[in-house]
Design brief:
This is DUF3243 domain-containing protein. Pfam families: DUF3243 (PF11588). It comes from Thermoactinomyces daqus. InterPro entries: DUF3243, Uncharacterised_YmfJ, YmfJ/YflH_sf. It is a single chain. The chain is an all-alpha fold and 84 residues long. The chain has a single domain, classed as Cytochrome Bc1 Complex, Chain D, domain 2, CATH 1.10.760. It has 4 helices and no strands.
Length: 84
């Protein structure tokens, strides 16, 4: 099963990657930049596997770059806050 098949699995996967990045000493800005790059790749090249991913892709497609960066930062915050 792919991490994209289930939104909770995707959030868990992203949370693990954020933890790894922090463990490597990356700061919040670098992590947000990487999340933006990942979001852009997913929006352009990957077909959404569930309703939540479809919504994120649709929002991404109408957002300008600054709004996309905010969305990426919010996804990082979502998974980071979810561990508390």
């Amino acid at each position: 099963m792919s991490v994209l098949d289930n939104f909770q699995e995707w959030k868990n996967f992203l949370a693990e990657r954020v933890d790894q990045a922090k463990g490597m000493g990356m700061n919040a800005n670098t992590i947000s930049d990487l999340a933006y790059q990942l979001g852009d790749y997913l929006a352009k090249d990957i077909d959404p596997q569930n309703d939540q991913e479809r919504l994120l892709k649709d929002l991404w497609s109408v957002a300008d770059e600054n709004e996309q960066r905010v969305m990426a930062g919010l996804m990082v915050k979502l998974v980071d806050d979810g561990k508390k």
